[in-house]
Amino acid sequence: MRSYLELITKWEVFLAELPEGSLEDFAHFLLRPAKEAIVVDTEPSLKEYFDKNTDQYNYQDHNSEASFLIWRLNKFLKNYTKSVFDTLQLNNQDEFAVLAHVDYLKECTKKTAVQDNLIDMSTGIDMIKRLINRGLLIDRPNPSDKRERLVRLSDKGRNLLYKTYEGFSHVQNILVSMSVEEKSQFVSTLKKLDDYHTRHQLKE
């Protein structure tokens, strides 16, 4: 008779690491050692190219390759979400980002909605005007500063935003091939980078 003791033991280890983990996460957890054993560098010439640029232009180690990979991932993300934005008549990621940020803050100044999403100010203000004209945002004078106007989501804007979130559930999972631990470490690393660059951006 087959013993399931080893599987049960691994299940207990998995739950200790991630109590909220799903069966899919557990499957990745079980397959992780096998995947790690067969990882190979399929683009040695590309790595040599990055190394050459690093030496020639005195880049920090891995900066060139990391920038390239982040750029490619952003391209993938744009491709995965394009059909959702097209269906709901959102022009780009920035329009979605503004709606989501205003929803998160409940209400904020136009300047905050633009700056927090790293959008050029004149471009962002024009974008917010279009969102207001489409009935997705509502604006009003800021009682604390008459020079500013506050924006919040209209019911129409909130419905569109939540339809966007629903649409995202059907697009490609960008972290699909990563284990639970890899996802956690990856997100932690991204947060560290985002925190640093956010602080740097705010100082400028």
UniProtKB/TrEMBL annotation:
Supply the InterPro entries for this chain.
HTH_MarR-typ (IPR000835), WH-like_DNA-bd_sf (IPR036388), WH_DNA-bd_sf (IPR036390)
List, alphabetically, the Gene3D superfamilies matched.
Winged helix-like DNA-binding domain superfamily/Winged helix DNA-binding domain (1.10.10.10)
Please report the name of this protein according to its UniProt entry.
MarR family transcriptional regulator
Q: Which domain of life is it from?
A: Bacteria
Which species expresses this protein natively?
Answer: Plectonema cf. radiosum LEGE 06105
Instruction: Spell out the molecular function terms from Gene Ontology.
Output: DNA-binding transcription factor activity
Q: What region holds the HTH marR-type domain?
A: 63-195
